[in-house]
Design goal:
Layout (H helix, E strand, L loop, with lengths): L1 H147 L3 H49 L10 E5 L4 H7 L4 H10 L2 E3 L6 E5 L3 H17 L4 H30 L6 H9 L4 E2 L2 E2 H19 L3 H10 L14 H11 L4 H8 L11 H14 L8 H16 L4 E7 L4 E6 L6 H18 L7 E6 L9
Parallel strand pairs: 7-8
Antiparallel strand pairs: 1-3, 2-3, 4-5, 6-7
Length: 520
């Protein structure tokens, strides 16, 4: 029983202890919750205060920005008001000036009306006097017709014809006086500029033709160049497009062709083949191909070097290549590249003497003949073709006009064009610059003489001094001294319009009167 009571007491004690522990933990948890709530409330208060402070700061910043904007707008409004006030004052002043001018205009108008009325009165008087003068004139004309026995129309016609003949004679003499005076006054500076230009440029005249002579060490090499059954020489001619002449000329082979580039290619290829010693069709084609590439590189290099030497920059690569090709072209025996360099230097000197742009003049002088070396050859004058090529590669309009007009194919619109034309004539017409074919030279002389013979009264004509002077013999019974002056002027104008010639042609009309008698 004691054990049972003990167990019961123990169980009761456990239960009581458990209840006590439960109450303890319950109170502890309640106290903890209160602390957490207090801490949360404190944190909430702190956050609230921070947010309020941040909101106040934001409000203050927005307020300051707004005040700045308002101030700026007020300043702009004030400035606009000032401008408006100034304009208003200016308008008021302008209105006052206009009112003043209007009053002055009214006064002037009254004065003009008075003057006009006065003039009208004077015009009426003049008309009345004119009518009286007309009556007197008619009466005088009738009296003169009665005395002279000739009508007014006949007298007028006779007077006009005599005046026309007299005016024509005086006009021709006046023209001659004006031309002489212009020669004395205007040609002085022109001669000085041209002479200085020519004297300051001294170049070597290059004479080329369509044949190149290739020298070899011995005649045995001719057989190797010809090859078995002529296969080597045929391959060389086919590859270069040049006719190769192997004749009895000792130690020489002739390369014939009108294209200097091909002729030079054939010469260099033949030199390489002879030096190497291996001459057969395959080797010939290989060497000719390499030589062509070498010539192309040399053409570009010559073009670049020419542009650098002359100080002409910014040229298109294709134009530089065309300039290099000029080295292998000739015009009437004058090397085209040398001619273009000479014209460029002449243009620069003449432009500097005249106060123009020397770089533009030098550029135009260098490019004026690029139409002669164009890859394609349409049926166009070389000046027009050169102008189109330069236009294709974005050259300036002044350069284009100078290129296209240097042979008068188009109208000259810039001062560079006559400079290029004059310098081209100077370079081409100077002694030793060009060779002229005998047939064309004789034809030009015959054309000069035939042109002068076509005029009435001309009996004989003589072209002398290599076509620089034309002497015209006229009949003394058909043309008088005054008509001879007119004839020389007309022939010179006709030559200038219809013929192409270097330099100038002097026309001399000779009228001779002879009195012959015989003593028997």
């Amino acid at each position: 029983m004691d054990i049972i009571y003990g167990l019961i007491i123990g169980i009761v004690a456990l239960i009581v202890g458990g209840l006590a522990m439960h109450l303890y933990w319950k109170n502890a948890i309640a106290n903890k919750s209160v602390d957490i709530l207090r801490e949360a409330e404190l944190n909430a208060e702190n956050i609230k205060k921070d947010k309020i402070l941040q909101a106040k700061e934001k409000f203050l910043s927005l307020k300051s920005e707004h005040e700045l904007i308002v101030t700026e707008k007020n300043n702009r409004i004030a400035a606009s008001e000032n401008r408006i006030a100034q304009k208003e004052s200016a308008l008021n002043q302008r209105r006052e000036e206009l009112q003043k001018k209007h009053k002055e205009f009214d006064i002037s108008k009254k004065e003009v009306d008075a003057i006009r009325e006065n003039l009208n009165n004077q015009l009426l008087l003049v008309e009345k006097k004119n009518s009286d003068l007309d009556k007197l004139h008619k009466e005088q004309v009738e009296k003169l017709e009665h005395v002279a026995g000739m009508s007014a129309a006949d007298a007028k016609e006779q007077l006009v014809s005599s005046l026309v003949a007299e005016a024509r004679t005086e006009a021709m003499s006046t023209i001659n006086e004006i031309m002489d005076e212009a020669k004395l006054t205007a040609s002085k500076d022109a001669k000085r500029i041209i002479i200085q230009t020519i004297q300051r440029v001294a170049t070597e005249a290059a004479i080329e033709n369509s044949v190149t002579v290739f020298h070899i060490e011995n005649d045995e090499m001719k057989g190797r160049i010809i090859g078995r059954e002529g296969r080597n020489i045929r391959a060389l001619e086919a590859a270069t497009g040049i006719e190769i002449i192997v004749d009895d000329t000792p130690e020489a082979i002739i390369l014939s062709g009108f294209d200097p580039v091909r002729r030079e290619t054939a010469r260099l290829a033949l030199h390489k083949l002879v030096t190497d010693g291996r001459i057969h069709p395959a080797r010939i084609e290989e060497v000719v191909q390499k030589t062509k590439m070498q010539i192309e590189e040399e053409i570009v290099e010559v073009g670049k070097r020419t542009a650098i030497d002359l100080g002409v920059h910014g040229l298109h690569p294709e134009i530089i290549r065309l300039i290099g090709k000029m080295k292998y072209r000739s015009s009437y025996g004058q090397n085209l590249l040398q001619h273009s360099r000479e014209v460029a230097n002449l243009c620069a000197i003449m432009a500097s003497e005249l106060g123009l742009n020397t770089k533009m003049a030098k550029r135009a002088g260098l490019l004026h003949d690029i139409g002669k070396v164009a890859d394609e050859e349409p049926e166009l004058p070389h000046a027009i073709l050169g102008m189109k090529i330069a236009e294709k590669y974005k050259e300036k309009p002044e350069i284009l006009n100078a290129i296209g007009a240097h042979h008068d194919e188009i109208e000259m619109t810039t001062l560079l064009a006559p400079i290029v034309q004059a310098c081209d004539a100077i370079s081409g017409a100077r002694p030793g610059a060009r060779r002229e074919v005998v047939e064309s030279y004789i034809k030009r002389l015959n054309d000069l003489e035939a042109l002068a013979l076509s005029y009435p009264g001309v009996t004989k004509t003589y072209a002398i001094q290599a076509g620089r002077e034309l002497r015209v013999i006229v009949g003394s019974d058909k043309i008088d001294d005054t008509q001879s002056e007119t004839l020389s002027f007309d022939i010179a104008k006709k030559i200038q319009d219809d013929m192409t010639y270097p330099g100038q042609v002097k026309v001399t009309v000779i009228r001779e009167t002879r009195a012959v008698s015989y003593a028997k």
